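>> received
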Amino acid sequence: MNEELGITIGTEARAARQHLGLTQAEVAERIGLVHPVYNRLERGKMLPSVPSLYRLCRELRVSPEKLMGLTATGDVRKGTKPKPKEEDTPELRRLLHLARKLDAEDLTALLHVASALAR
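>> returned
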């Protein structure tokens, strides 16, 4: 295994996950890995398979180039974090993710609670 690549992927995955306000367990579930395996990936102790890398990029909303520390031309670049949009707080993204799992009745109840809190 290429240790440097593993550490780069793990570091970028952790930063993207935290930016989205997700837990390791949530990301692991979404990409079809068990939590301990995803934990090893974030610590740079393993490289993901190509299908796992694809799912990871989709769920964390990052390009494979960013996840592997490359520019679009393939050059290694210094990591820069994108500025989070004000309306895209981790809490809001997490709430949206959880709300998508609710049935219609529970979603309506959540809407009522949110409306009451917003007053």
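>> Confidence is low (pLDDT under 50) at residues 78-83.
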